[in-house]
Design brief:
- The protein has 348 residues and is an alpha/beta fold.
- Helix 6 crosses helix 8.
- The longest helix is centred in the N-terminal third of the chain and has 21 residues, at 2-22.
- Helices cover 43% and strands 16% of the residues.
- The protein contains eleven helices and ten strands.
- It starts with a helix and ends with a strand.
- Strands 1, 2, 3, 4, 5, 6, 7, 8, 9 and 10 form a ten-stranded mixed sheet that branches.
- The protein has a single domain (80-346), classed as P-loop containing nucleotide triphosphate hydrolases (Rossmann fold, 3-Layer(aba) Sandwich), CATH 3.40.50.
- It is globular and about 70 Å long.
């Protein structure tokens, strides 16, 4: 019965495709995308999750524990390149949904780009995917040049570059086109749906290699038209990102906006209640990271050029604060300073 039902549904999808392509002026690319989404959803329903016995589970776990014990620096996941962050997380773990959230101008995209580049350079042969719905590929690449070459981003944007800028840009370009070349796939398609994102992630994994990290900028720009309201839409997007992390068995790092209500507080450091549009984000995320720069609110602060990295949630590890030096003009986070938040809070 199940096979007959799937056959009917597949035949129906085929009939829809045939009817669509016969209509004058039809967007063929759109038809192909829609058909792929429907077939993917049908295939997912046809493959129920299977459980494992304790014996089967332990046979998988023990070799993984042995691998972790043989890692000399304790970074068992994908390294971020930030000493304190890696120490607190042991690297971003496979299957985890990691949210990086902040108000505008705090450096969300800069941190994500730094994480991606650091992870690819620290693990030879690793692959990454970046889905940038906010900025086109050219702007992402300029940020990478500025980050790798320590070049003033305004010089790259204006073209007013001196000889030193050109030398740094040349070296950074050589790294991106040489050692890194196909290690990072950038997709700047706007307004992705969860189904579209999963399809593209799978396709890129087949073409370029399985990713060790996936980045998304940013989740509120995704759309989920089948939902009744924005809260349900964000909840479905959040659930789908967690499912993608588990399916691809790599960390999915998604940027998120925060509610503007925090601007009215005396202490504007974010907390989990500030996540925008849905409580599902707090529930689904394995790790929540906030960015706070005091100089955005206080011009005369002593913490100029400092971005606080606040881990407010971590399912299997401590939470706490560290601080990173950040060049405001250059879109790059530098080496972390010593932890400024005292003892880490160990979650039960």
């Amino acid at each position: 019965m199940a096979r007959t039902s799937r056959a009917r549904q597949l035949a129906s999808i085929g009939a829809e495709i045939t009817e669509s392509v016969r209509t004058p002026g039809t967007d063929i690319d759109r038809v192909m995308e829609t058909a792929e989404q429907k077939i993917t959803r049908l295939a997912e329903r046809a493959e129920p999750e299977q459980g494992v016995t304790l014996l089967e589970g332990m046979e998988r776990l023990l070799p993984e524990l042995e691998r972790r014990c043989n890692v000399p620096d304790g970074i068992t996941g994908t390294p971020t390149g930030f000493e304190e962050l890696d120490a607190m997380t042991s690297g971003l773990q496979a299957g985890d949904l990691v949210l990086i959230a902040a108000r505008p101008s705090m450096g969300k995209t800069a941190l994500l780009i730094s994480l991606l580049l650091n992870s690819l350079m620290k693990k030879s042969g690793s692959k990454g995917q970046l889905y940038s719905m906010e900025q086109p590929t050219e702007q992402i690449l300029m940020r990478m040049l500025a980050s790798l070459g320590s070049i003033d981003l305004t010089h790259l944007k204006s073209g007013l570059m001196d000889d030193e800028d050109w030398a740094r840009a040349t070296d950074a370009s050589a790294l991106l086109m040489g050692d890194l070349n196909d290690s990072l796939i950038i997709d700047d398609t706007g307004s992705l749906t969860p189904a579209m994102l999963r399809i593209r992630a799978r396709r890129n994994a087949r073409r370029y290699g399985h990713p060790s990290i996936i980045g998304l900028d940013y989740l509120q720009l995704m759309r989920c038209p089948d939902q009744e309201n924005r809260t349900q839409e964000i909840a479905e997007i959040s659930r789908s990102l967690k499912a993608l992390a588990k399916e691809m068995m790599c960390p999915v790092v998604a940027l998120s906006q925060l509610n503007r209500q925090l601007e009215s507080r005396a202490d504007k450091r974010p907390n989990n209640g500030d996540l925008r549009d849905s409580g599902a984000l707090e529930q689904d995320a394995d790790v929540i990271v906030f960015i706070y720069r005091d100089e955005v609110y206080h011009e005369n602060t002593e913490d100029k050029g400092i971005a606080e990295i606040i881990i407010s949630k971590q399912r299997q590890g401590p939470t706490g604060r560290s601080a990173c030096s950040m060049k405001v003009v250059l879109p790059v986070f530098l080496t972390s300073r010593a932890d400024r938040g005292g003892a880490h809070e160990q979650r039960p």
